[in-house]
Design brief:
Length: 172
């Protein structure tokens, strides 16, 4: 009898420990307060994807119903409450959001995204020109192996360190 009671208590404890993490995952979701400048809006029929450059220079993407972003344009400063990737509210702050400018001689890698406008192919390496969403042309070098299958007109996102691509992701 004593063994049965101890076994039931142990079993109940194990079940309780197993259920606790599952309850945490299904509980309230983390709220992200996003403050920044609208980099791009990809409009859809009923909802759209918004890319915002935050104050630290990072880009945050989230979705919103079109009625919440009515009148918002690229370049506008916004403050948004985002839960599970969807905007619950979007408003314009009283003053423009200041974005940190990257250091010119930064040792940290840069993330560059846009459309490839030119590839100057060399024997082993190539020079790639990318037109970024802000209209700037960004050039970097990459190995021909890394560029395999990439052509002018492809949309890419590249991690560039000291002028050389460390990674290139294509989105066709």
């Amino acid at each position: 009898m004593k063994r049965t009671i101890i076994s039931v208590i142990l079993l109940a404890s194990i079940i309780n420990v197993s259920i606790a993490p599952a309850e945490e995952e299904t509980g309230p979701y983390k709220v992200n307060w996003i403050s920044g400048v609208v980099k791009s809006i990809q409009w859809g029929k009923e909802s759209s994807l918004i890319s915002v450059v935050m104050q630290d220079g990072e880009i945050f993407n989230f979705s919103s119903t079109n009625d919440k972003i009515e009148g918002i344009q690229v370049g506008d400063s916004i403050l948004s409450k985002v839960v599970r990737g969807w905007a619950e509210s979007i408003e314009r702050p009283g003053k423009p959001v200041e974005i940190a400018k990257p250091k010119i001689n930064s040792e940290a890698p840069q993330w560059v995204s846009g459309e490839i406008t030119a590839i100057q192919t060399g024997k082993e390496n190539s020079l790639v020109s990318v037109m970024m969403p802000n209209g700037e042309n960004f050039k970097f070098s990459a190995t021909n192996q890394m560029l395999h299958g990439t052509t002018v007109g492809d949309r890419v996102r590249a991690k560039v360190n000291k002028g050389w691509a460390e990674t290139i992701e294509r989105s066709r």
